[in-house]
Specification:
Aspartate Aminotransferase, domain 1, four-stranded mixed beta sheet, globular, 385 residues, seven-stranded mixed beta sheet, 12 helices, 35% helix, alpha/beta
Length: 385
C-alpha cells in the first residue's frame, strides 16, 4: 500500500481482504474475521448481500447516472419509501453521496429559510468531514450538556435551566445527533432535548436530526430521534442506507418542503438524485422490512448489552453503554484497550478502537449464536490480562 494515502488516523491491520459475506471478511490466507464495525458502520445488511447486489446489477444495465433535465422513476419510488419509514408523509428528499453532504445541505436549507446565522449542536457531536462543520469557531453554539449528567432535576427539566437560557435567539438550526456522540455512545436526557427543540422552534429555528450513524435500525428503531419526543424538520441519512454503497439522503418534512416551494432554494452537484443510489435505498428498506430487522436489532441488542454489562468489573471494563446494536465499552486505560483490540483481531473479530474505548456496531443480521461466540472470545482475552 505504498501509493495509497491513508489519513483517517486508524492503523491498517489487515491490508488485503479478498472476499466477504454477511458478517465476515476473508484475507488472502483464507482467515475469516467477524466484522463487528460493519465496515465504517455502513454494511447494515452485511457484506456482499446477494439481494442488494442483484438490485445494483439490474440498475447498472438500465441507468446509473442522470443529468439535470432528466431522471428515472426509481427516485420517486425510493423517496416515498424512505419518507414513509421516517414518518415524513408528503415530504421531499434529496439523494446525495455522503452523510457529510446530507448534513451540509440541511444546514444550508435551514439558514436559507430562517435567515438566521448561528448553528447549534451538542458539544460532543460529530457532524461530518466538511470544514464548514469541523471549524466551529465562528457562527456556532456548542451546548455543553455535561452538567445535565449530574442534575437531580433532569427528569423535570424546564426552560429556567441555566444551560438552556444560554441558547442564542438567532439560532438557525439545532443539529441533534441522537446517541452517537462522536462515536462514544452517550444518550442525552429526553427532557433536555425536548426543551432545546421547543426553545429553538419558538425562536424561529429548525431542527435537523443527524441520523448518519444512528439511523437505519442502528438503535433498535428506524431512526435514533424516535427515542425522543421530537419531530425534526430535516433528517440527514447516511451509512447503512446504502449497505456500503455511497448514498445519503436529506429528508424534508411536509411543512418545510412547502416553505421551500415559496422560497426557492438552489443546490446542485454531479451525483445529486442518481438512480443507482436511489435503487439501492429502495432495496435496503424492502430488505429490512421483509426480514423484520428493526425489532430483531432491538431484541438482539438487548441480549448483547446484557452480556457486555456482565463483563464490567471496574478493573478492565469500567462501563458499557448501548442502544439497539450500537455499543461502547469504556476501558480502564489505552494499554488495556489495545490489548483487547489486538487480541480480538488475532482471534478473528473486528471492533472499533477508540483509544479509551471499544466500539461495537454489528450488522443488523447478526445472530444470537454469533453474539455468543464474540462475547466468549472477549471473555477469554479479558481473563488473560
Amino acid at each position: 500500500m505504498e501509493h495509497v494515502f491513508f489519513c483517517t488516523g486508524h492503523e491498517l491491520k489487515i491490508p488485503n481482504i479478498i472476499e466477504s459475506k454477511g458478517l465476515y471478511i476473508y484475507d488472502e490466507q483464507g482467515k475469516g474475521y467477524m466484522d463487528l464495525e460493519s465496515g465504517v458502520w455502513c454494511t447494515s445488511l452485511g457484506h456482499n448481500n446477494s439481494e442488494i447486489n442483484g438490485i445494483i446489477k439490474k440498475q447498472i444495465y438500465s441507468l446509473t447516472h442522470t443529468g439535470f433535465c432528466y431522471s428515472n422513476e426509481i427516485l420517486e419510488n425510493s423517496s416515498k419509501s424512505i419518507l414513509n419509514v421516517a414518518g415524513f408523509k408528503n415530504g421531499k428528499s434529496v439523494f446525495l453521496c455522503s452523510g457529510s453532504e446530507a448534513i451540509e445541505i440541511s444546514i444550508q436549507m435551514a439558514k436559507h429559510l430562517t435567515e438566521k446565522r448561528v448553528s447549534m449542536t451538542l458539544h460532543d457531536s460529530y457532524l461530518g468531514a466538511y470544514s464548514s462543520i469541523i471549524d466551529k469557531s465562528k457562527n456556532w453554539y456548542l451546548l455543553n450538556w455535561e452538567p445535565c449528567n449530574n442534575c437531580t432535576k433532569i427528569e423535570k427539566c424546564d426552560q429556567s435551566c441555566e444551560v438552556l437560557q444560554k441558547i442564542p435567539k438567532d439560532t438557525s438550526e439545532f443539529i441533534f445527533e441522537p446517541g452517537s456522540s462522536s462515536g462514544f455512545v452517550r444518550f442525552p436526557p429526553k427532557a433536555l432535548i425536548s426543551n432545546i427543540v421547543q426553545i429553538v422552534r419558538n425562536n424561529g429555528g429548525k431542527i435537523v436530526a443527524n441520523e448518519v450513524t444512528t439511523g437505519i435500525g442502528r438503535t433498535g428503531k428506524w431512526f435514533g430521534y424516535q427515542h425522543y419526543d421530537i419531530d425534526p424538520d430535516f433528517i440527514a441519512v447516511g451509512k447503512g442506507i446504502g449497505n456500503g454503497y455511497p448514498v445519503s439522503i436529506a429528508l424534508i418534512n411536509k411543512s418545510t418542503a412547502r416553505e421551500l416551494e415559496k422560497k426557492p432554494f438552489h443546490y446542485s452537484q454531479s451525483h445529486q438524485n442518481d438512480p443507482l443510489g436511489a435503487s439501492i435505498v429502495y432495496g435496503v428498506i424492502q430488505y429490512i422490512e421483509e426480514k423484520k430487522l428493526i425489532p430483531k436489532a432491538e431484541n438482539r441488542g438487548l441480549l448483547l448489552l446484557k452480556q457486555l454489562e456482565s463483563l464490567v468489573d471496574n478493573e478492565i471494563i469500567t462501563e458499557v453503554r448501548g442502544r439497539g446494536l450500537m455499543f461502547i465499552l469504556d476501558i480502564k486505560n489505552e494499554e488495556i484497550t489495545n490489548f483487547l483490540y489486538n487480541g480480538l483481531i488475532e482471534r478473528g473479530y473486528i471492533v472499533g478502537n477508540r483509544g479509551s474505548s471499544l466500539r461495537i456496531d454489528p450488522p443488523l443480521i447478526i445472530s444470537e449464536a454469533e453474539i455468543d461466540t464474540f462475547v466468549n472470545a472477549l471473555k477469554k482475552i479479558k481473563s488473560s490480562i
